[in-house]
Amino acid sequence: MSTARAFPNLALVKYWGKRDEVLMLPAAGSLSLTLDTFETRTTVTLDPSLRQDAFELDGAENTGDARDRVRAFLDLVRERSGNASHAHVTSTNEAPTGAGLASSASGFAALATAAAAAYGLPSDAAARSRLARRGSGSAARSIIPGVAIWHAGDGDETSFAEPIAAPEMRMVIVILDGTKKAVSSRDAMRLTALTSPFYDGWIRATEASLESMVSACRAGDFTRIGRITESHALRMHAVIASTDPPIRYLSPASVAVFDAVGALRSEGIEAYATADAGPNIAVLTRPEDSATVATRLSVFGRVHDVGPGPGAELVDTGEPPGAPR
Ligand code: DP6
Is 107 a pocket residue for ligand 1 (Cβ < 6 Å)? Predict the structure, then answer.
């Protein structure tokens, strides 16, 4: 039995498009901040008497797509480890349910870390990042603390995330809508590659944004990091809006938050907005400005002022409670 915890991450340079759907290789690299809030905690308990993996999420037996993804992931772990046992997987999320924050990134980063320990697979961060990638691409980055770069790589071995030096930053998350997203990132990403006339341009632009972002991080240039973050996010939403049929994740309220963030900048407070596959907005700030930004944006919805968090890690090596020492 092994228990691990992991946190979600928010991308400053987004991953949106796969080169290989089986190996889960991204079409371009990406860069993110792992958060210190909304922990996922996952326990993997091997049980040779089980005929199928069982998955309990937030206290309820899960029988849907999430369970199928967990099973497919554990099939890979079994194949690699040579241990055919099925497992009980129990997972809890601290993110408020339905707020669109309970992420597959923290989920598969915690599962990869707990499963690697339970099945005896290599536990170094690069190996766990490669493994987590197979569950959900963005999970490769939640293995890593703070700012992580996920290299696109040219195959399974070379596509993993690692830490990169960057200035101190925080994020203010503005929760605008509690409803489940209409189209999953996985499906929308595929539709973008298949139908957007701008897809190739988007991938080339992402490669260029990543290069500029890496040099801005190295230089500790918060302003450049922020500018790239906001323009890159809007480019992603633009390419998503260009699919057939079109998909639009941002709501009128999301656009209003982008405007409010622009207004903060014109007052001299440096803040930059980004959004993933949903209407909620994350605002990048310097540490000294996050409280002001959170107060100003609280008129739009619930706000969370979050900082850089730890990478995925084991929290328990598995003695059952009450076992003799
Ligand atoms: C908009 O990692 O959820 O959050 O690899 O298909 O599981 P799969 O997709 P996923 O996509 C994340 C998309 C994003 C951008 C990002 O996190 O980089």
Answer: no
Q: What is the pLDDT along the chain (325 residues), one digit of tens a residue?
A: 999 999 999 999 999 999 999 999 999 999 999 999 999 999 999 999 999 999 999 999 999 899 999 999 999 999 999 999 999 999 999 987 666 677 899 999 999 999 999 999 999 999 999 999 999 999 999 999 999 999 999 999 999 999 999 999 999 999 997 566 679 999 999 999 999 999 999 999 999 999 999 999 999 999 999 999 999 999 999 999 999 999 999 999 999 999 999 999 999 999 999 999 999 999 999 999 999 999 999 999 999 999 999 999 999 654 554 444 3
Residue 237 near residue 244 (C-beta atoms within 8 A): no
Which atom from ligand 1 is nearest to the alpha carbon of 24? 5
Ligand 1 midpoint to CA 138 (Å) = 5
Residue showing tokens 């049929």:
245
Helix (H, G, I), strand (E, B) or coil at 181: coil
* Ligand 1 proximity of 15 Cβ (cutoff 6 Å): yes
Short-list 75, 52, 53, 55, CA closest to 63: 55
The CA-based angle 106-112-113, given to 5 degrees, is 90
Identify the structural domains of the chain with CATH numbers, from first to last.
2-166 (3.30.230.10), 170-306 (3.30.70.890)
- Whose alpha carbon is nearest atom 12 of ligand 1? 138
Q: Which atom of ligand 1 is nearest to the CA of 9?
A: 17
pTM of the predicted model as reported, rounded to 2 decimal places: 0.95
